[in-house]
C-alpha cells in the first residue's frame, strides 16, 4: 500500500471565496443567456428513484448495504444543477450531517463543511443517484460529517463520451457556487469526489482532467474510487484479457466498435484518467476486489501511473468478487473515511 498525506487547502481565506463567487455569478449569467434561444421540452433522466438498478447485482447484504444510517441525516432530493442543450434536466440529491452544536457555523468558523460529489455506477448506461445503494452511500458520507451530493448524469445510449464527465464536472461547479456554499454551509476549497464502477471512472477523471488550483472550477481536492474501469485503451484491455461484456460497454460509452484499436478509437485515451495525471492532481484512494467483474489490473496500473506522475495514491485490494460499493463494507468505509478526513479535513 502506498499512502501519502498532503495539505487539504483549509487555510484559504474569505477573499478567495469572493473571487470564486464573482466567477460563478458571471458564468451563471452567461449560461442563462445561452439558454434563452432554446425552447426544448425539458426531460429528466430515466429511470429515477430508489427502485433503479444498482451495479451491485447480488441480493445479498454486502458492502454499503451493511450500513445503517443514524438519525438526523437530512436529505434534499432532486435539486436541479443544470439543463443541457438537448433539454435534459440534471439533478442531484444532497445529504447533510445531522444538526450539531459542533457545526462550523456554531463554532463561529467561516470555513464550512467539506463536501463530496458522489457518482453512481452502472456501465455509464443505467443506475440512479437515489437507488437504494447510492442513497445509502450519500447518507454514509453525511454521517462522516461531509455534505454529499449524489448526482445523476446523462447515460448511454442517449449520449456518449464526454457527456457524462461534463455533467459531473458541472455538478462540482454548482456545489462551489456561492448560493450552494451558503445554503449547505460548505467550504468550496474542500470538495472531493467519490465513485464506483463507471462512477469510479468519472470520479477519477474529475481528479486528473484539467489543471490549476484544486479549489476552483470543477477541480476536486481528493478522489476515492472503487472498481473503476479506468484504462479504456486497447492495450490495457488486452493485458487484462477483458471480457466481451467489458469491451462492449466501453465501446458503447466511447461510441466505438468493441475491441477497436486505439487508432480507430482515440477517445479511449481521453476517457482514461491516467492520460492526464500530473503532480498538480489531488490525492487518490483506489479500491478493488481481487476477482470481480472489472479486472483488478485496471486499478493496479492506474495506481502505478498516478504514483509515477507524482500523485499521492493509496491502493486497497480486498479478497473476493464483489464490485463497486459492494466492497464498501465497514472496514472499507473506515479506510475511505480516514482518507477523506486526511485530505479534506474533519
How would you describe this structure to a colleague?
This protein is an alpha/beta fold and 346 residues long. The protein has one domain (14-231, 272-344): Rossmann fold. The protein has 10 helices and 9 strands. Helix 3 (163-176) packs across helix 5. The radius of gyration is 19 Å and the shape is globular. Keywords: Hydrolase, Membrane, Transmembrane, Transmembrane helix.
Tag the structure with descriptive keywords.
10 helices, Rossmann fold, BD-FAE-like domain-containing protein, BD-FAE-like_dom, alpha/beta, membrane, GDXG_lipolytic_enzyme, 346 residues, 33% helix, AB_hydrolase_fold, single chain, 9-stranded mixed β-sheet, disordered N terminus
Element layout with pairings:
Layout: H1 14-35, E1 43-44, E2 74-83, E3 88-96, E4 113-119, H2 132-143, E5 147-151, H3 163-176, H4 178-184, E6 186-196, H5 198-208, E7 223-226, H6 234-239, H7 244-254, H8 267-270, E8 284-289, H9 296-308, E9 313-318, H10 330-344
Parallel strand pairs: 1-3, 4-5, 4-6, 6-7, 7-8, 8-9
Antiparallel strand pairs: 2-3, 3-5
Structural class: alpha/beta
- Distance from first to last alpha carbon: 23 Å
What proportion of the residues is helical, as a percent range? 25-40%
Which architecture name does CATH use? 3-Layer(aba) Sandwich
Text of the CATH class: Alpha Beta
Average pLDDT score: 87
Domain count: the total is: 1
Radius of gyration: 19 Å
Tell me the total number of β-strands: 9
Overall 3D form: globular
Give start-end ranges of low-pLDDT stretches.
Answer: 1-40
* Percentage beta strand: 15-25%
Count, helices: 10
CATH topology (level 3) name: Rossmann fold
The CATH superfamily appears as Alpha/Beta hydrolase fold, catalytic domain
Biggest sheet overview: 9 strands, mixed
Strand/helix succession: HEEEEHEHHEHEHHHEHEH
Amino acid at each position: 500500500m502506498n499512502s501519502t498525506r498532503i495539505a487539504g487547502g483549509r487555510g484559504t481565506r474569505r477573499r478567495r471565496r469572493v473571487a470564486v463567487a464573482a466567477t460563478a455569478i458571471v458564468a451563471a449569467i452567461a449560461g442563462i443567456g445561452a439558454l434563452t434561444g432554446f425552447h426544448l421540452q425539458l426531460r429528466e433522466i430515466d429511470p429515477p428513484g430508489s427502485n433503479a438498478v444498482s451495479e451491485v447485482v447480488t441480493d445479498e447484504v454486502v458492502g454499503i448495504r451493511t450500513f445503517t444510517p443514524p438519525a438526523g441525516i437530512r436529505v434534499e432530493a432532486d435539486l436541479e444543477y443544470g439543463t443541457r442543450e438537448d433539454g435534459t434536466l440534471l439533478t442531484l440529491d444532497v445529504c447533510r450531517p445531522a444538526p450539531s452544536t459542533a457545526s462550523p457555523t456554531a463554532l463561529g468558523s467561516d470555513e464550512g463543511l467539506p463536501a463530496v460529489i458522489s457518482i453512481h455506477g452502472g456501465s455509464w448506461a443505467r443506475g440512479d443517484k437515489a437507488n437504494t445503494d447510492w442513497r445509502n452511500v450519500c447518507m454514509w458520507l453525511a454521517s462522516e460529517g461531509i455534505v454529499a451530493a449524489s448526482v445523476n448524469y446523462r447515460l448511454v445510449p442517449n449520449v456518449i463520451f464526454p457527456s457524462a464527465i461534463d455533467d459531473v464536472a458541472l455538478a462540482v461547479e454548482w456545489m462551489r457556487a456561492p448560493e450552494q456554499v451558503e445554503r449547505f454551509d460548505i467550504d468550496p476549497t474542500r470538495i472531493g469526489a467519490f465513485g464506483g464502477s463507471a462512477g469510479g471512472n468519472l470520479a477519477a477523471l474529475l481528479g486528473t482532467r484539467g489543471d490549476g488550483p484544486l479549489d476552483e472550477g470543477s477541480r476536486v481536492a481528493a478522489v476515492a474510487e472503487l472498481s473503476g474501469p479506468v484504462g479504456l485503451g486497447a492495450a490495457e484491455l488486452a493485458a487484462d484479457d477483458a471480457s466481451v461484456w467489458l469491451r462492449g460497454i466501453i465501446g458503447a460509452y466511447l461510441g466505438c466498435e468493441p475491441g477497436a484499436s486505439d487508432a480507430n478509437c482515440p477517445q479511449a485515451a481521453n476517457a482514461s484518467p491516467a492520460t492526464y495525471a500530473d503532480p498538480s492532481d489531488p490525492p487518490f484512494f483506489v479500491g478493488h476486489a481481487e476477482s470481480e467483474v472489472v479486472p483488478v489490473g485496471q486499478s493496479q496500473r492506474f495506481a502505478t501511473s498516478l504514483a509515477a506522475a507524482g500523485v499521492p495514491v493509496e491502493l486497497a485490494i480486498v479478497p473476493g468478487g464483489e464490485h463497486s460499493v459492494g466492497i464498501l463494507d465497514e472496514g472499507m468505509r473506515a479506510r475511505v473515511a480516514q482518507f477523506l478526513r486526511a485530505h479534506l479535513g474533519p
